[in-house]
Design a protein that fits this description.
The chain has 298 residues and is α/β, with parallel strands linked by helices. 41% of the residues lie in helices and 14% in strands. The protein folds into two domains: 183 residues, 3-Layer(aba) Sandwich (Rossmann fold), CATH 3.40.50.150; 78 residues, Putative methyltransferase TM0872, insert domain (DNA polymerase, domain 1). The protein has a seven-stranded mixed β-sheet, with helices on both faces. β1, α2 and β2 form a beta-alpha-beta unit. The longest helix has 16 residues. Bound molecules: S-adenosylmethionine. S-adenosylmethionine binds next to α2.
């Protein structure tokens, strides 16, 4: 099965404005579709570092002396680059979220389409799993996860049902969890389940915390004139990216210097997020919620 179909491939590579002798980072290597396109654009020179926290991504490492794979969370970007003697880079690409491989691999527990252990870790060595969250989180913390990350309208009812269920038995696998949700599903079943699974996945992998650390690293690691390209799939992620690129902080607050000039660490290349074309969405429906933002370090 195809590991992953890269989203907005031509547009994102174009936005990086690749220099043949430059140094680039693909923060979310996955199936390596974007990485291979960056290597092609560099035509046999330059350097590319590909990060992924999922050990399965290692199967896709290209045989190319200009490429280094780093199996790590991208929140540690600058620290790992320094180990390679790299302090600044000319461009960074991040294509956030999960890969098709992760969603389609039943045993990983990311998808409600299969019956599997409730795992959902992108990093197979991490401690926190979906099972721990469902069986151990306090009711009010579950409410927060479902409303913030899944925009579940009846998140209180859902959290209460989980707490009642686990008093009787441990919630072990996805089909038991889905059966338990039966009477409380609101609206379209698959949409509801997708939102619940997405919310748990974001919490398991601390996706918002990792994105904040990553963006802070980007600010420190991009050389002047270097480009950052981020493709996100969730409104909370997109808001963090938008605010940070606009103002250098996550709230989007205008910060003024001593002379009253507004500080802007980046020049925005996309004023409005770019979305995939209808042609791309019909070929690859998983691209439908993608939003790409591009900025240049001043
Ligand atoms: C949407 S896929 C990227 C697909 C890739 N662009 C391609 O063309 O195949 C996202 C990948 O990023 C990885 N990932 C997500 N968050 C990460 C993080 N915080 N640190 C490292 N890797 C991460 C996932 O494991 C997954 O393989």
């Amino acid at each position: 099965m195809n590991y992953h179909d890269p989203v907005l491939k031509a547009e994102s590579i174009d936005a990086l404005g690749i220099r043949m002798d430059g140094t680039y980072v693909d923060a979310t290597f996955g199936g390596g579709g974007h990485s291979r396109a960056i290597l092609d654009a560099m035509g046999g020179s330059g350097r590319l570092f590909g990060f992924d926290q999922d050990e399965d991504a290692k199967d896709n490492i290209p045989e190319n002396e200009n490429f280094n794979f780093i199996q790590s969370n991208f929140r540690h970007l600058s620290r790992y680059l320094k180990l390679y003697g790299v302090n600044t880079v000319d461009g960074i690409l991040a294509d956030l979220g999960v890969s098709s491989h992760q969603l389609d691999e039943a045993t990983r527990g990311f998808s409600f389409r299969f019956d599997a252990d409730l795992d959902m870790r992108m990093n197979q060595n991490a401690d926190l799993t979906a099972k721990t969250i469902l069986n151990e989180y306090k009711e009010e913390d579950l409410v927060q996860v479902f409303s913030d990350y899944g925009e579940i309208r009846n998140s209180k009812t859902l959290a209460q049902a989980i707490v009642n269920e686990r008093r009787l038995r441990k919630i072990e696998n996805s089909q038991d969890f889905i059966n338990m949700m039966g009477p409380i599903i609101r609206g379209k079943r698959n949409r509801y389940l997708a939102q619940v699974f997405q919310a748990i996945r974001i919490e398991v992998n601390d996706e918002m915390g990792a994105l904040k650390d990553f963006l802070t690293n980007v600010g420190q690691t991009l050389a002047s004139g270097g480009r950052i390209v981020v493709i996100s799939y969730h409104s909370l992620e997109d808001r963090l990216v938008k605010n940070y690129l606009k103002s250098g902080n996550f709230e989007g607050k205008q910060i003024k210097d001593f002379y009253g000039n507004i500080e802007r660490p980046f020049k925005l290349i996309t004023k409005k997020a770019l979305e995939p074309s209808q042609v791309e969405i019909s070929r690859n429906p998983r691209a439908r919620s993608a939003k790409m933002r591009v900025a240049e370090k001043k």
